[in-house]
Fold these 2 entries.
Entry 1:
Amino acid sequence: MKKNFVFKKNQWFFEEIVPGILETVKTGVKIKKKIFFGKSPYQKIEVMDTFGFGRILILDGIIQLSQADEFIYHEMLTHPALFYHPRPQKVLIIGGGDGGVLREVLKHPIKEVCLVDIDKKVIEVSQKYLPFVSKEAFKDKRAKIFIEDGLKFIKRYKNFFDIIIIDSTDPLGPSLGLFSKNFYRDVPKTLTKNGIFSIQSGCFFEQFSHLRNIYKKLKKIFPFVEIHKACVPCYQCSTEYSFTIGSEFNLGKLTLRDIEKKFKKLKLNLKYYSPEIHFTSAALPKYLKEKLK
Ligand code: SAM
């Protein structure tokens, strides 16, 4: 017998408006239990247990990660960049206060990783209520944690980092500047020769203009720009999420054989990224290549 659907408002979480088409689309997740609610000087912070995605982190009403699929997002924002680079030693993460990208970066034999998040509270709440994300990464002696605006931090380092990863919130509030031309101009000065820049660049369908904006700006800064993509179900995108990579290094030069050799040598324990995914995730259909022009 078909069960009647009873919609009780306080049992569902609907995301606030995310820039882009999402203003016309609303999807909700059914809540099991509200775990944490608080405000920092920068944003509203919520943690909830859900039926469909396990535990989720929400900032300013927008889902940042879920227990069910955070590994997809964190592996795809991290590993393509670290595999493009021949031998990354120094890594900078801007944002990423949940510790997921930090966890993935520390799987590589890097010397030093600096994580710069503007909001101490996100790090505290994530370590307390979302330990499955960082998995003690904050305690690794190679990790240096800075509570600071990434826009200011980057200006203090010249020719220093081999990899820069932007794991920020959507272009609203404190992270708006991290999608600006001025910030992108600072990035190559902070990177070492052939350094790699990786940024979370939104949903392909719902936020296409945002993605194209980033792509076009980076094309003015870096001779080589690639877009990798993967489905991250908790991000209420009907299509894949995008991860855009820029570098002066010819990203297209690497072969599957090159990535396989490095992957085998590093013996990383990964659930999503692989040498095949490195290439298939960068294959864009013709209509999207057209739309990016
Ligand atoms: N996966 C998420 C996404 O795609 O939306 C990002 C999660 S991560 C928790 C986002 C972090 O970016 C937050 O902790 C926020 O405090 C940080 N952030 C936003 N603007 C920042 C800035 N200008 N400098 C440093 N960190 C910033």
Entry 2:
Amino acid sequence: MNRMLFWLTPLFLSAHLTNAQAPEPVFNYDEAKVGTYKLPNPLTSNTGKPVKTRADWENRRAELIQLFAENVYGQTPKQTIKLRFQTTAVDSSALNGLAIRKMVSIFFVDYPQVPSIDVLLYLPKSKKVAPVFLGLNFCGNHCVTTEADIPLSTRWMISGAVGEAAVNNRNGEPRATEKFRGMQARRWPIEMIIKRGYALATAYYGDIEPDHPQGWRSGIRSVLGDTTKADNWGAIGAWGWGMSRILDYLQTEPRIDSKRVITIGHSRIGKAAVWAGAQDDRFAAVISNESGEGGAALSRRWYGETVERINTSFPHWFCGRYKTYNKNVANLPVDQHELLALIAPRPLYVASANDDQWSDPKGEFLGAVNAEPVYRLYGKTGLGTATFPALNQSVGQTVRYHDRTGKHDVTDYDWEQYLRFADELVR
Ligand code: GCU
């Protein structure tokens, strides 16, 4: 629950306090009270036709992406943006000689006012060409490692998520301090990843859009999209788009196997990773770590976070139209199992943690279960089970799932499962 309180934004509080009549939002944690709900069928087209073949599914897939864009995440701008990749530093003997470390900035040539995405890339020296995990981070590249020569990000910095480490600059905007260095290194076991023969690419999500309601004004959404539209893209769409731009860069990196780029994301960044993977099939596999509401968890299941709550606390994450479902989730033309189905036939990992009931582990599991028919269409077994597994047990085939003990986090246990998943399925 702490996590829930933690993220009560001032915006949410003031809206809440000024309306004395508004009932207290109720969050359900009682399985007996979940009630019944009817999920939309991914294999029924918009006009009611059954989807029987892979070719039918390809059309249905396009329909579903459109439905998610119109109703949930907003439209991802289609135009090709001119990018310039600039390598700013190379260390050919990083991590005690295990890795080559590169820093590469992605600039938007026609939009010099939009900040670059600054990529931190570790390549295993043991391989000429390596598959790569690509994930955005929450508090700057300097957070994912204790290495002293990674420059501190000078961008807007989320302060709540990382305690008191951010200090305000002259304009009263939070910025990173040295206290941030390595703060989330535990979540990024770079040595373990490198020793297993994988590269790691990461960038700060705030490079793409600072995570607050006005953040779009200084990110990519200030120049792309249309703020007057109910289906204009939200921050999650922008973060997902940014992952695809990093993939554009990785495709030019000779030491990267660009056919084996695995996108990974935790929590809100997990929501973005799944949406990115759904739209961009250059991602070979997708990993959702506790992405919860608006990620892998079913929206119609009344448990933990709700659509109404996420739209209230984080009004900038989704498109405007998503808010019209706050009080009638049953009218959403899609549910999140269909988002997961958009990854098919590619490998997908959905992970939960049992002290993270806010993300609704069972709802995430059921999201994966209900993506099964689409994997079957490709002759693949997805999860292959509808029985919720015991704690710390990874189940499934092309789709995998585990419910880890512990809190909302990314742990070595999670990474061990992801590495095994990648070894077995992303070949
Ligand atoms: C909040 C939010 C979740 C989100 C999480 C996070 O708890 O309600 O939807 O996943 O923050 O990103 O850590």
